[in-house]
Amino acid sequence: xxxxxxxxxxxxxxxxxxxxxxxxxxxxxxxxxxxxxxxxxxxxxxxxxxxxxxxxxxxxxxxxxxxxxxxxxxxxxxxxxxxxxxxxxxxxxxxxxxxxxxxxxxxxxxxxxxxxxxxxxxxxxxxxxxxxxxxxxxxxxxxxxxxxxxxxxxxxxxxxxxxxxxxxxxxxxxxxxxxxxxxxxxxxxxxxxxxxxxxxxxxxxxxxxxxxxxxxxxxxxxxxxxxxxxxxxxxxxxxxxxxxxxxxxxxxxxxxxxxxxxxxxxxxxxxxxxxxxxxxxxxxxxxxxxxxxx
Length: 294
Ligand SMILES: NC(=O)C1=CN([C@@H]2O[C@H](COP(=O)(O)OP(=O)(O)OC[C@H]3O[C@@H](n4cnc5c(N)ncnc54)[C@H](OP(=O)(O)O)[C@@H]3O)[C@@H](O)[C@H]2O)C=CC1
Ligand SMILES: Cc1cn([C@H]2C[C@H](O)[C@@H](COP(=O)(O)OP(=O)(O)O[C@H]3O[C@@H](C)C(=O)[C@@H](O)[C@H]3O)O2)c(=O)[nH]c1=O
Description:
The chain has 294 residues and is an alpha/beta fold. It has one domain: Rossmann fold (3-Layer(aba) Sandwich), CATH 3.40.50.720. It is 40% helix and 19% strand. It contains 10 helices and 13 strands. It has helices at 11-19, 45-54, 69-72, 76-97, 130-145, 165-175, 192-204, 225-236, 266-272, 279-293; strands at residues 2-6, 26-31, 38-39, 57-62, 100-106, 148-154, 157-158, 178-182, 186-187, 190-191, 213-216, 223-224, 242-246. The strands form 4 sheets. The protein has a 7-stranded parallel β-sheet with strand order 3-2-1-4-5-6-11, with helices on both faces. Helix 1 crosses helix 7 and helix 6 crosses helix 8. It starts with a strand and ends with a helix. Bound molecules: NADPH dihydro-nicotinamide-adenine-dinucleotide phosphate and dtdp-4-keto-L-rhamnose (TDO). The site of NADPH dihydro-nicotinamide-adenine-dinucleotide phosphate (NDP) has 26 residues, from helix 1 and strand 5. This is dTDP-4-dehydrorhamnose reductase. It catalyses: dTDP-beta-L-rhamnose + NADP(+) = dTDP-4-dehydro-beta-L-rhamnose + NADPH + H(+). InterPro entries: dTDP_dehydrorham_reduct, NAD(P)-bd_dom_sf, RmlD-like-bd.
């Protein structure tokens, strides 16, 4: 089968490259830039439809997105184009071809309501900012198209590649003597390698057949960004930095982030029967890889 990965230069796209290296399926890795990467701009509806038709694509994994949460507040049109309108282009093209669209969404579709139990798939979306709003619109475009699809909502993604919270905190806890990190926003960090492994397994074993719908996938466990930072410093051996918990209003930003966006993964576990690693175990593995590369 021919498989198209969009946004393949990003964290999840790169992790999928590694996970699928030995597959007997044919993968096409695309993005708007990058060496060893085919060019495909998902905001170009004709190009998207042409690529899917010409290459006989059976599955699309959409890893392309506008992921800068703060910048999206001042760049709403671009965020909407990439996270919603272009997702509709992919979905309509797959509806025409009869293939399957695997689309990635986020825990930030939640957060506007005060709750403290893990979010279920069917729970109403209550996004608090442009990024979350446009990601929710993207999900709706997929469902409205009538294409065969799986939507995976994930959270707090990090990896060895690109810019992410783990890389930022590795640098800050090394450079700074003191750091304040919010403790009133809880969620679950997710190693992109684990999510890529899960998606690859589902594609490789055709587990998507008869299992369309929306699923939550993050690593196991719950923490705040403060706890996450403490664990990052611990695994990196950065003992000098004094990491203190703070409230969100002490770390001002353009957008209010969810205070509780833990994802309930029961549906994923029971449907696919795949193991999900604990967040601390995956974090330790990722930091060891980053340190090895230096
Ligand atoms: N990062 C996170 O913490 C989380 C991410 N997610 C979701 O997971 C998915 C993957 O995220 P992640 O890997 O971190 O994202 P990244 O931002 O790392 O990667 C996205 C990729 O898409 C590319 N891209 C931008 N515009 C286009 C376009 N017009 N056509 C094709 N590709 C384009 C980007 O290029 P460039 O860099 O040049 O813009 C980048 O290479 C996204 O759907 C995201 O919303 C969900 C929860 C958490
Ligand atoms: C750097 C830093 C951040 N923070 C806070 C700010 C924020 O509330 C929290 C996380 O910071 P970030 O800006 O890295 O996280 P953010 O970009 O909001 O991360 C989100 O990205 C999108 C793409 C998603 O889909 C989400 O699941 C989530 O991963 O940590 C501190 O408290 N102290 C610090 O020194």
